[in-house]
Write a structure and sequence with these properties.
Trimer_LpxA-like_sf, eight-stranded mixed β-sheet, UDP N-Acetylglucosamine Acyltransferase, domain 1, six-stranded parallel β-sheet, 23 strands, mainly beta, globular
Length: about 180
């Protein structure tokens, strides 16, 4: 860990990981083996980052985000070796909101937002924003359903609202949008 990195109380960082100066990791996080966290990255409370993940400059992970093994964030839209983009002005921000989960080997292209409770399936390539509580899969990632904050697949059928196993109620607004009511 570099001098100037901030790590919250109770966070665990496994071996062969590098936390850069200026990175901020909240309390109660688990940072797996061989993880890189770049300068300026903000990681919230209770975030779990599995092995072999690089969290590049411009990425913000809000509270209780899950990053599966070997998933990938990018931070430059048009990378070139001969003409490097290496200033913070060159990086497009990526925001992963509270409770979102990203599966193993998924790729999240720079500049997108994964909204609250979004679920990215293993191996998906996310090239655009993912709405709240939406499950996406495939290359490129497409919506295939909805998931509650507690991990229940939401089956609306003919109903406009459903309740998950934790007692939270969700309302289907359209074929692509759900909101949590309670």
């Amino acid at each position: 860990m570099d001098d100037g990195a901030q790590v919250g109380e109770g966070s665990k960082i496994w071996h062969f990981s590098h936390i850069s100066a200026g990175a901020r990791i909240g309390p109660g996080c688990s940072i797996g083996q061989n993880v890189f966290v770049a300068a300026g990255v903000q990681i919230g409370t209770g975030v779990k980052i599995q092995n072999n993940v690089s969290v590049y400059e411009g990425v913000i992970l809000e509270d209780y985000v899950f990053c599966g093994p070997s998933m990938v964030f990018t931070n430059v839209k048009t990378p070139r070796s001969e003409f490097p983009r290496n200033t913070s002005a060159d990086y497009t921000p990526t925001l992963v909101k509270r409770g979102a989960s990203i599966g193993a080997n998924a790729t999240v292209v720079t500049g997108v937002t994964l909204h609250e409770g979004a679920f990215v399936a293993a191996g998906a390539v996310v090239t655009r924003d993912v709405p709240a509580y939406t499950i996406v899969a495939g290359v490129p990632a497409r919506a295939i359903g909805f998931m509650s904050a507690s991990g229940d697949v939401l089956e609306f059928g003919q109903a406009d609202t459903v309740t998950d196993s934790a007692g939270h109620t969700y309302q289907k607004l359209s074929d692509t949008e759900v909101r949590r009511l309670s």
